Amino acid sequence: MKIVLIGEGGHSKVIKDMIDRADGYELIGYLDDKYDRTIVKGHLFFAPLSIVSDLLEQFKDIKFIVAIGNNHIRKKVVEELNIPDSYYVSVIHPSSIISPSIKIGVGTVVMPSTVINADAKIGRHSIINTASVIEHDSEIGDFVHISPHATLTGAVKVDEGTHVGAGSTLIPNVNIGEWSVIGAGATVINNIQSHSLAVGTPAKMKKIGIGDV
């Protein structure tokens, strides 16, 4: 399977390492609009996003991952590309512990040493980052970022676009509304409304503008 990463930055470096370790995957290039033309370095190409249609015609088995850490930008790129979900692939690092009963949407990446337990559901184009824990029956929406060492205990629900900060803890059964931010190290013991920032232990909530998340 030939894979192209959309976005060339720090997040894409980790995904590249995951692809290099996975059987049956071959990274062939990057798409990023910081390039105004196609160039080749070694066995990889670097090109603007505008060549997506050419790649779809050239390769029958090509797949894409949007390797952009910002949730808003990741969603914007997916919407602007407007290609079928079948062209996206999910990648799971081999060191992760993944229950066979979970469901993971297309385009999602699961980083090293992650634990995802029974009957959890992970949406499309989300990031489950290094050493995070998603406990049983939790639901993660599309375009979410679960940061390193975050812990979501049983039956936590995180809606679209939310960023759960590094080292934070969400107690069982809490719901986090869409496009919110959970601060690093926060302990969430109550539901968090959409477009909110929650910080501290226990976490306190304040509303923020949509563009601030």
Topology:
Layout: E1 2-6, H1 10-21, E2 26-31, E3 39-41, E4 44-47, H2 52-58, E5 62-66, H3 71-81, E6 91-92, E7 97-98, E8 103-104, E9 109-110, E10 115-116, E11 121-122, E12 127-128, E13 133-134, E14 139-140, E15 145-146, E16 151-152, E17 157-158, E18 163-164, E19 169-170, E20 175-176, E21 181-182, E22 187-188, E23 196-199, E24 204-207
Parallel strand pairs: 1-2, 1-5, 2-4, 6-9, 7-10, 8-11, 9-12, 10-13, 11-14, 12-15, 13-16, 14-17, 15-18, 16-19, 17-20, 18-21, 19-22, 21-23
Antiparallel strand pairs: 3-4, 23-24
Describe the fold and architecture.
The protein has 213 residues and is α/β, with parallel strands linked by helices. Helices cover 14% and strands 31% of the residues. It contains three helices and 24 strands. The protein has helices at residues 10-21, 52-58, 71-81; strands spanning 2-6, 26-31, 39-41, 44-47, 62-66, 91-92, 97-98, 103-104, 109-110, 115-116, 121-122, 127-128, 133-134, 139-140, 145-146, 151-152, 157-158, 163-164, 169-170, 175-176, 181-182, 187-188, 196-199, 204-207. The strands form four sheets. An eight-stranded mixed beta sheet has the order 6-9-12-15-18-21-23-24, with helices on one face. Strands 7-10-13-16-19-22 form a six-stranded parallel beta sheet, with no helix packed on it. A five-stranded mixed beta sheet has the order 3-4-2-1-5, with helices on both faces. A hairpin with a 2-residue loop joins β3 (39-41) and β4 (44-47).
